[in-house]
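pls ignore typos typing on phone
adenosine monophosphate + seq
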Amino acid sequence: MLRIYNTLSGKKEVVKLKNGKAIQLFVCGPTVYDSSHLGHARTYITFDVIAKYLKEKWFDVFYLQNITDIDDKIIQRAREKETTPEKIARKFEKTYLQDMKSLRVNSVTKYARATDHIKEIIEQVKTLVKKGFAYQIADGVYYDISKFKNYGKLSRRTALQAEDAVSRIDESKEKRNKGDFCLWKFSREGEPKWSSPWGQGRPGWHIEDTAITQKFFGAQYDMHGGGKDLVFPHHEAEIAQMEAISSKSPMVKYWIHTGSLTVNGKKMSKSLGNFIIIQDFIKQHPARILRFLVIKSLYRSPTDYKEESIAQAKKELARIDEFVARLSKVNHKLKKGHNLTLTAERAFETAMEDDFNTPKAVAVVFDLINRQNALIDKDLLNKADAEDILKFLKKIDRVLGFIFWPKVKEKIPQEVIALAKERGKQRKENNWQKADEIRKKITELGWQIEDTKTGSRLKKL
Ligand code: AMP
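k done
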C-alpha cells in the first residue's frame, strides 16, 4: 500500500488511483537562463526515482515536464550577453538535458516548452477574462485572487513571505489586490512577443503550466511535483487558474514537494550565490555520487550540502562495487543456499511504499551486503544464490540507478602515453633500470603499466 505525503492535506495518504490507466505526473521544469545547480539535481533526481518506482510497482506513468523558455530572467540574461532570449533558452535547455542524462534522469515522457503552447495559454487567459477572474491594466492581464474563494488551500496562506525567493509576482500600482499575478504581460521594445486579443505580449509564469497540463492531461490529474519553494505562490496560482477555468476540483489529487538543498542552512540558489553547478560537480566527481547523495537523504527534508559527505559516499559505493564483483565470482554448487533476497525485497518495498523512504531503501542494500558478505566469507553462498542476489540488485537499480554504473573510460594523459612509449623503447634496448625508473614515474602520475604477451597496457590506479 503506497502512502504519499500530500501537501494538499498535510498528511500521508494511501494512494488510490484508477487501475489500468497511466499515472499522470507533472513536475515543474527549469527556467532555462543559466546552468542547473545541485539544488535542481536534488529535485529532478527525486522525481526520477519516484516516477521509476511508480512504473515498476504500479502501472504506466506519463511524466510531463515543462521548460520555461520565456521569462524575465531569460530576457535579462540575453541583454547582458548581447544575444537573443531564444538563443539563451536553447543553450541552457541543451545543458539541462545533458546534465539530466549524466545523472541518469531519464524517466520524463514529454518535455513541453512554454513557447510551443502560446495558443493554449491565450485560450486559458481568454476563459479567465470571460469568467470574471482576470482583468486588464496598463502592463498586462492579471488574475484577481479575491475572486477565487479557495485561494490559499495548498499553502494555507494568501500572502508572500520572506522566503518566497521565486515569487515572480509582478508589481503594478494598478493591481486590484497585492497578490494578483500576471497572466499576460505586454512586451516592451525589443522583447519577444506574440499577438493576443489584448495586444502583443508574452505569458506570465504560472499560466504556462496549466495550459500545458490541460493539453496533455485535461483539467484534473493525478500528481504534481516540484520544490517546496514553489508551493506559494506558483502552485497556488496554478490551482486558482485551472479550477476557475474548469469549475472542477481538485485540479491535482496528490501534491509532492521536495525539501531544499541547503548550504549552511540557506537554500542553494542563484540569487544567494551559494550554488555549485552540476557540470562543475561532475568534472570533479563521478555523477553517480551526486545521484547517490540525493537518494541517501529523505526527499521532503531540507538537506545541507557538505563536502565531507562525498568521501563517505565514495567509500560506500566502493563497497557496493566490491560486493558485486565478489558475487560474480561465487562458484559453489552447495545444495542448501543462503539467499536473503526475499527479506530484502520486502524491506525495500516497505521503505519505498512509506512515502518513498529512500534512505531506508539504501540501508536495506547495505544490510544485505553485510549479511551476504559474512556468508561468502564462510563459503556458504552458492552460485544460484549469487545470481539471485545480482538479479535483485538489478531490479531495484531500475529505480535507484546508482548500483550498476557504466565504467567511464579515463582519458590517458599525453605525458603518461609518452612515458610508456619511452619505457617500451628502453626495454627493447635492455635498459632495465631506466625502464623501471620510468615505471615509477608513471605510478606517481596515478597510472599502472601492465606487460602482457601482446604489449603493455595502462590502467588507472
Ligand atoms: P527553477 O529553475 O529555479 O524554477 O527551479 C526548478 C526546480 O528546481 C523547482 O522545482 C525548484 O523548486 C527546484 N529547486 C531549485 N533550487 C533548489 C534547491 N536548492 N533545492 C531543491 N530544489 C530546488
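The chain is about 45% helix and 15% strand. The radius of gyration is 27 Å. more later
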